[in-house]
Design brief:
The complex is a heterodimer of chains A (291) and B (134). Chain A has 291 residues and is α/β, with parallel strands linked by helices. Chain A is built from 6 helices and 6 strands, in the order H-E-H-E-H-E-H-E-E-H-E-H. Classes of the chains: A alpha/beta (291), B alpha+beta (134).
């Protein structure tokens, strides 16, 4: 039977842990709010971008642009798989899920794959297991900037245009709600025709004939890389918000679990104390009887 | 007409204005209500808009402008309001860019240095205009 002092010590340790998890939950909650705001504030840009892209695409022949051409997949054509994980853990199954999805994608794919890794957890996992890695980005979630998305988009576009890879997919956690994240696999390059087709756009604004400066083609050339950047940026923001949501939930559970643990430990401690008192009384009583 | 200026991470301006001046790829152009629909890429430059007697300035670099008779939408890669501009940093960037352009070395990226210089100049210009007004 453990001694009273040992039990007290354990209870104190659990209480300390509980305080830490509680604080982490609160920090994650406030960061989550900020991350959500950022998703919202990035939305107008993405929406307007899509509108302009569609209206231009209606006027130029999109098939001639390299970022739109889907190439025939030969057995040896490569796919670049960009896996967005977090830099830190303590967030439940957030990283595991997205890594698992990434590994499945690579192993199930008929074509060879090369990886682009965002976040320390992904790099650690895939780097250690000898996967082919084209680039990695570590520590960008500390202070996420649009520039970071631009670097990733540029690397992907370069690899795609130079023919090193024939397809680029993006795997990340989408922020659905505070309690649920969903791993999604998005095709980044070639840009999906559905995103560009003007048929799915609301017709009213698109009937206007624009003047173009410089040329429709010139604008299109500018617009597509920006569009890819915006998509990467959105994925990073989503993943960031999802991370804090996952961390918050995980820390909330941890706080609850430690409360349960404190409860049962306290109960056990009281039993031990009662047993000790009872034993002492018996000793006194039997000592008195012996006299 | 309605002016909306958005950059990648936020929306800066969403207001009713009387006139807009835009740094287009082929030079500055002014937009009054009823302008013919126009799509243009943007350069590094100053974007200004007028509301009655009051004129506001923004530092802009790259992106797109979409003009419709009753609406102007600016999708900027970089857009800053005067009070957000770090003058000291812009000064430093200007000096750095000037030095690099003055003493060219082999394999130097001239275009990059030139853009850096223009960005810093535009920032300083916008910041100083705002200071004069206040």
């Amino acid at each position: 039977m453990p001694s009273l002092i040992d039990l007290r010590r354990r209870i104190r340790a659990v209480k300390n842990t509980q305080q830490i998890t509680k604080a982490m939950k609160m920090v994650a909650a406030s960061k989550l709010r900020r991350a959500q705001d950022r998703i919202l504030s990035a939305r107008p840009y993405a929406v307007q971008m899509q509108r302009v892209l569609r209206s231009v695409a209606a006027r130029v022949d999109p098939s001639i642009h390299p970022l739109l051409t889907s190439r025939e997949l030969r057995p040896d054509s490569k796919t670049l798989v960009i896996v967005v994980t977090a830099d830190k853990g303590l967030c439940g199954s957030f990283n595991t899920n997205v890594i698992k999805a990434g590994a499945h994608y690579v192993l199930d794919s008929a074509n060879p794959c090369t990886l682009g890794l965002v976040g320390r957890k992904g790099r650690d996992f895939f780097g250690r297991r000898g996967f082919e890695v084209l680039f990695d980005q570590i520590g960008i979630f500390q202070k996420l900037r649009y520039e970071d998305a631009r670097v990733i988009a540029r690397d992907s576009i370069d690899a795609f245009v130079s023919g090193k890879v024939d397809r680029v997919v993006l795997i990340y956690n989408e922020f659905k709600s505070v309690i649920s994240q969903k791993v999604v696999v998005d095709q980044l390059l070639p840009v999906a025709r559905a995103d560009v087709d003007s048929a799915s756009a609301p017709a009213a604004g698109d009937q206007i004939d624009y003047l173009y400066e410089p040329s429709p083609q010139g604008i299109f050339d500018e617009l597509l890389p920006r569009y890819v950047e915006a998509q990467v940026y959105r994925a990073l923001l989503e993943s960031n918000a999802a991370f804090f949501a996952a961390q918050m939930t995980a820390m909330d559970t941890a706080t609850k679990n430690s409360a349960d643990m404190i409860g049962s430990l306290t109960l056990y401690m009281n039993k031990v104390r009662q047993a000790a008192i009872t034993r002492e009384i018996i000793e006194v009583v039997s000592g008195a009887e012996a006299l | 007409m309605q002016l909306q200026v958005v950059s990648a991470d936020r929306s800066l301006v969403n207001e009713q204005v009387d006139e807009v001046g835009i740094p287009g790829a082929e030079g500055y152009f002014g937009v009054l209500p009823g302008h013919t629909p126009l799509l243009s890429t943007l350069q590094v430059g100053t974007l200004w808009y007028r509301q009655g007697q009051e004129t506001h300035y923004l530092a802009i670099a790259f992106g797109f402008a979409e003009v419709q008779p009753d609406r102007v939408t600016i999708l900027a890669q970089i857009a800053e309001k005067p009070d957000e501009i770090d003058v000291a940093r812009a000064e430093a960037a200007k000096k750095r860019a000037e030095e690099r352009l003055a003493a060219p070395v082999m394999d130097m990226d001239f275009e990059r240095a030139r853009i850096a210089l223009m960005k810093s100049l535009v920032r300083l210009q916008v910041a100083s205009r705002a200071r004069i007004r206040s």
